[in-house]
Amino acid sequence: MKENSVQLQREKCFPAWDPAVRQEARRFAVLLAVALVAHFQMIANGLQNPDSLWLGGDYHIADSWELSLGRWGLVLVDLLRGGFVSPILSGVGMLVLYTAAGMLLVRVLEAQNSRPLRWLIPLTVVLAPQVLITESYLFCSIAYALAFLLAVAAAYWVQRLPRRPGVLLGALFLMASLSLYQSNVGVTAGLLLMWLLRTLLDEPEALAAFARRLGRTLLACALGLVAYYIVLQLRLYTTQVALSGYKGADSVGVLHALTSLGTGIPQAYRDFFDYFFGRTLAANYYHVRPVYALLFVLAAVALAVRLWQIRRHRVACLLAVVLVVLLPLAVAAIDLIVPETTLILLTCSPLLTVVPFVLTLCARYMGERRLARAAVWLAVGLTVVLLRGYLLQLNTDSTTLLASQRTTLTVAQSLLQDLQECPEYRAGMPVAIIGQPESGNYPNLSPCYDKADSLMQMGLLFHSPHANAEGWQQIFKQYLGVALNWSSRDQVMEIVNTVEYQLMAVYPQEGSLQEIQGCLVARVA
To answer: Half-sphere exposure (CA, 13 Å, Cβ side) for 442?
Structure first.
């Protein structure tokens, strides 16, 4: 009797003893383990993209550059992690946050009663190709993953809490998310629109309640955006930093967004379509495009079935159709706010919520008949095929980037040896290494290069001369542990425009290492 009393008291004080909580903890552990295995090649080899190589290094604290882009919260995350840029810390920490976001997404979409969806929805997040792209930004991947989690949490609080605390907490979480990465505004906007659609289809007669939820959604998003903008302006004022024109950061504003709707709306629909059915934003190989198409068809059938069931509620049916049409605009909200920007896979995180929503529609509205149940299991099977495509794409991208890293380091070691044999180098002459190995005599040898994401195909170095020249400096410092007497950026640009440089051979050919304008130049491409 006494033992039972102690057990009850322990369960009351420590909810983790609750069986449901233990089950969620086990699911989190299994999902995280799957994510770590899938991303092992990236983490183990410390793979990174040119941005990460150029800006990151072994230590990074966000400065005025990040602030000029409107990301005033990045410095807080950098200070929390001590500024250290570690592939293991960044990779594991990022996957922990994405796994948590995937599990929270199950609750936001109210899919926790479906056993298959409790597993599939988080997997569509942690195995998505853009998570690997985020991972290649070693110096800020944890912050970007946290931004996604906070955006999902913002929608969760708006849904689950009473009106006033839900709006305030949702706005606070949205503001925090935007301070780390602004494109995640589409995560919160999209999830809240999905919530409105579900509640409308579940309670078509409760239009007054729908109107209150719509007002709560708009108010939370507006407060979050306004709070983010006010804090941003205060930070800019106190630090005497101006917004950068990079990716249209300096054009953010309500008036500008309204006057640019004619550009932003078509762009949002194009990006939505291209993400799922094109090859510009996502590579979309390994049969993922037909799987997307079939999943969308099943979701359309589920919606049609539910609309037929509630056909007497004509206003609700019309509103539901309108919300479906607006969904691409919600998840691509950054296109409406900053039409000048160009979406890349990194900024497509809001679109990660679409497939989980499609699965939720299929499980929720197909009905209980045998044919409907078969359609639900068909959606589950298609998602498994989709995850197989994601896994292959992860391997493709990481293998391509690894091949580039190996080639670049081989060339760097050879260059260092050749430089050390030059008397000019030993005399202290400045050095400039210009060009990408892949654009010269060292093509990427990855067997799946053609199917890799465009950023992974780029390798470790940017295309432009001054950028890849500075990238070579980081390669020698980070990978070879050597600090040379490097030439300045202005000097590199002057050298590139000379006739002597244009007539140089490409490394490792004879004449690929010459003195130009008092600088020892190696032309790699």
So the answer is: 24
Sheet holding 431-434, edge to edge: 431-434, 519-523, 513-516
Whole-model pTM? 0.93
Give dist(CA 363, CA 120) in Å, integer: 12
Handedness of CA 50, 55, 60, 64 (dihedral sign): negative
- Three-state helix/strand/coil letters over 359-387: HHHHHHHCCCCHHHHHHHHHHHHHHHHHH
Phi first, then psi: give them for residue 436, nearest 5 degrees. -95, 135
The string of pLDDT tens digits covering residues 336-386 is 888 777 778 888 999 999 999 999 999 999 866 777 788 889 999 999 999
Distance, CA of 512 to CA of 522 (rounded, Å): 6
Q: How many residues does the chain have?
A: 525
User: In 203-348, which ranges are continuous DSSP H helix?
Assistant: 207-239, 254-259, 261-277, 288-309, 314-331, 333-337
pLDDT digits (tens, 9 = 90+) for 161-194: 998 999 999 999 999 999 999 999 999 999 999 9
CB count within 10 Å of CB 222 equals 14
Q: Which residue has the tokens 């000019």?
A: 424
